[in-house]
Structure formats: C-alpha cells, structure tokens
Amino acid sequence: MYNKPMIEVFPEKCRGCRRCEVACSWDASLGTVNPRMAGIRIMKLEEEGKDYPVLNQQCLDQFCGKVSPGRGAEEEPLCVSTCLFGALKIAEEVSKVD
C-alpha cells in the first residue's frame, strides 16, 4: 500500500498561484518550504495565456537518463530539456535532478 500524500491535478482550475508548489515542497522535519524542490511545476503557456501544472513523473523508463550513454540523470543537465513532461529541474543544493 502506498501511503505517501499525493497531489491531484486539475489543469482547468489552475490560476498560476503556485500554492501547489509550496504545499508540495513543505518539509515537516525542517519546518520550511522550498518551492524549487517541489515535485510539481507550473508551466506558463504564453501563446495560450494559460498556466498548466506538471508533475515530476519519476518515470520507470527514464528517457532523460538515456540522453548521454553511461551517465545518469543526476549527472546530465541535458535531461532537464529532454524531459517529456517538462517537470525536471536542477536541485543545486543537493546536486541532483528532482
């Protein structure tokens, strides 16, 4: 059974307020939030004038890790631009892709 809290996304209700990023990045053990570490991103669709929530998919078949043979996603910044979901970002504080 999976007991980790989940975020359910309703793209049609997104207003770009980024409250989901704050909620997702809450670290109860530290009592802090860090939206840069959230597992969700708000993508701005400029052409359409819309905001769209995108979750980090933690993909089983990680295309981003295959971008450069012999290197994992945590070593290859190119993975950020090749993520099929646009959900990856570099977490500089811990030197890994989240």
Widest sheet, order of strands = 1-2
Query: How do the SSEs run, as a string of H and E?
Result: HEEHEE
Instruction: Calculate the mean pLDDT score and round it.
Output: 69
Low-confidence stretches: none
| Structure annotation, total helices | 2
Radius of gyration, in Å, reads 15 Å
In terms of topology, how is this protein built?
Elements: H1 19-24, E1 40-45, E2 50-55, H2 78-82, E3 90-91, E4 96-97
Antiparallel strand pairs: 1-2, 3-4
What report would you give on this structure?
With 98 residues, the chain is α+β, with helices and mostly antiparallel strands. It has two domains: 9-55, no CATH class; 57-98, no CATH class. The chain is built from two helices and four strands. The protein has helices at residues 19-24, 78-82, and strands at 40-45, 50-55, 90-91, 96-97. The strands form two sheets. The chain has a two-stranded antiparallel ribbon with strand order 1-2. A hairpin with a 4-residue loop joins strand 1 (40-45) and strand 2. The model has no long low-confidence stretch (mean pLDDT 69).
